[in-house]
Structure formats: structure tokens, C-alpha cells
Amino acid sequence: MILKNLKLMNFRNYKGLFLEFNEKINLIIGKNGQGKTNLVESIYMLSIGKSFRTNKDKELIKFGENNLYIDARIYRDDETKEIEVLIDNKNKGIKVNKISIIKISELLGNFNVVVFSPEDLKLVKDGPKERRSFIDKEISQLIPKYYNNLQRYRKTLFQRNKLLKNFSIDINLLEVYDEELAKYGSYIYITRRDFVKKLSDISKKFHKELTGNKEELSLIYKTQIDLNDSDDYNSVYQKLKSKLFESREHDIYNKITRYGIHKDDIEIYIDDIDVRLYGSQGQQRTASISLKLSEIELIKNEVGEYPVLILDDVFSELDEYRQKLLVEKLNDIQIFITTADISHKAIFRDVEATVFNVKEGMIDKIENGGR
Ligand SMILES: Nc1ncnc2c1ncn2[C@@H]1O[C@H](COP(=O)(O)OP(=O)(O)OP(=O)(O)O)[C@@H](O)[C@H]1O
Ligand SMILES: [Mg+2]
User: Fold this and answer.
1) Pocket mutation for ligand 1, best pick of 11, 12, 117 (most atoms within 8 Å of C-beta)
2) Could you read off the pLDDT of 8-20 as tens digits, one per residue?
3) For residues 257-268, b (16+ Cβ closer than 10 Å) or e, as one string?
């Protein structure tokens, strides 16, 4: 996948902007607070219709303005697609090839983007919530149905928890919610379990490379309910339902839903050691890089084309060996690299790269600026 060009109007600190990109490396250089992340944020918006920094669309509109507009051309499967996003104080409209979409799930899968930012280096060290959110975002990009099920699960969970807080509880309604949580939950469980399995196989390979064959990485999808790889949709559904039933009294007493896929996690092992708990900081960071890189490969396997990769400020967090390895490994992919460090240009001396100098929401472009 290639982002050919991008037009921004009133997006963050950009008043008006039109850029054509390099099919390989786009180096976005500028001092702090000039608009580097803003630019890549707008690119990410095209993939899932949402920012990776905020859930509040309004924050994306330039201060003092009423609406923003993004227009991009994407090249994939030998054809060009246009994606437009328009956000005003009340609404968000998205078009693919001039046709308005009604649900976000219709946008997903048109343009795949992987963002790697310094927070991702904490993926392994972070809590289960961050790891769940990592896999949820990834799977949603690949399987719109997953996104829909997840939305429904979240809504039902919210309603169930609300019901549990009532003084007197309508058991029939609780029954309905349990049924729905088991239905959506079993789909989510099976999809996550399969995804983590694939991710585990690919990340093992990357991790070997990153550690010079020294470490064996593996991932296991972990749920508190007694489920295993041989459970199919129906048996997961039954088990989830009986677990919710079993825990009903506890849930009513504590006013919260104790069991379900909203509590799950990914266990990450290096050799036989749980890295989340016992890994060194370096091991945790390297394992996080392996996971992120695997995502790229996984998308390639699933959709047949590499996604676009955004490296927002991560370059300075990596040592020289890993910087070089990353650039070498990723030579088939369109990459957007933001950095405040001009010396990073040297890494791209021998490759074709376009440099974009960002200053106060304005951008100068220098072809082959890395040389
Ligand atoms: N809605 C908005 N309207 C106008 N300007 C905004 C808006 N939101 C953020 N900004 C401005 O954008 C700038 C931050 O841009 P950005 O996060 O892209 O910086 P950056 O170049 O990535 O910096 P760093 O190197 O520190 O990460 C800030 O100056 C901020 O005031
Ligand atoms: Mg930034």
C-alpha cells in the first residue's frame, strides 16, 4: 500500500497543505511542537477514521476553525483509491471513492497503517488493558466483523454493569445481557486466540533476528475461563454463559461483571520466562519491537500487501544496530519516520528518501534529501 498524496485543511496546526510522498522513505524532520506527529496522525485517520492520540475528534480541528478536511490518494491492488474525512463540531463524514460510508467498519481494510511510537516500546511492560487494546486495534483493521462484535460487546457490558448497580435487578434483562456477552465474547475470544497464535509464530522469527538467535519468544492468549485451543465457537459460548451465570450473585453484590473477554491478556515468554514480570527492560523493549514488526508481516499475509508504517519518534529510542536493522528489513514498505534529530538523515544516506522539513505547520520538501 502506498500513500501517494495528502491534502489537509485545518487539521491541528495545518491550515492548508498538499504533499506528494515517496514510495519508500519519508523522513519528517522538525523541532519539537512543529507538527510532525500531527502530520502522521492525519495519515492514521485514513485507516480507521480515528486518531491514535485522542478519541475526541474536535481536538483535531485547528484552533479557531469549525471544520477540518483530509483528502488522500492511496495506491493498492493496482488501483488508486480516494479517502476523504470531514469533521465539524457535530459530525464526521468519511468517503471512499466519493461514496459516503455509514459505518466505520466500511472504511476498515481500505488502507492499513501500523504506527510505532515510543509508548509501544512499553507494550510488554504495560498492563493487560494496553495489550488488549493493541490486539483489538490490529484485528479490527483486518476484520471489520471483529470491530462490530467488539463494539456490541462493550455496549452490552456497559449496560450489564449499569443494571448491576440498580437497587432491584431485572433478572430477565440480565439473562438477555448474559446471552449477548457470551455470543459476542465467544467470537472475540476465538478470533483473538487465532490472531495471537499467528502473531506468536511471526514474532518468534523477528525476535530471533533482533537478538542474534539468542532468545525464543512466544505468546499465549490468556483467559480466566477454562478454555483451550480445541474449544470451538459453541463450546466457548456455553462456557462463557455458564461462567456468567455462576458469577451472578458475586456480580450483583459487587456491581461489576467479573468474567469475560474484557479481562483477558497476552502472556509473553522469552524461553520459559514471563517477560512481563521477570524480563529486563531491554528484553521487554526488544520483545515489544518484535511484536510491532510482526504486525506488519501479519497484515501482509492477510491482505496481500504491506501496510504503510509510521515510526513516530521511535528512532531515537533505538540503538544504532536496531535502527539499521529496521531500515534494512523494511525496504519493501512505505515508511514515514518523524524525528527531531537531524543526524538521523545519515542512516538514509544510501537509500532513496524524501525529507520533509516541518516548521510551524508548514512543510518544505527536499527530494533525496537523505544524501
Ligand atoms: N487543534 C489544534 N489546532 C492548532 N494547533 C494545534 C492543535 N492541536 C495541536 N496543535 C499544535 O500542534 C503542535 C504540536 O504538534 P505535534 O504534536 O505534531 O508536534 P511534533 O512536531 O510531533 O513535536 P515533538 O517533536 O515534540 O513530538 C503544538 O504546537 C500544538 O499547539
Ligand atoms: Mg511528536
Assistant:
1) 12
2) 999 999 999 999 9
3) bebbbbebbbbb
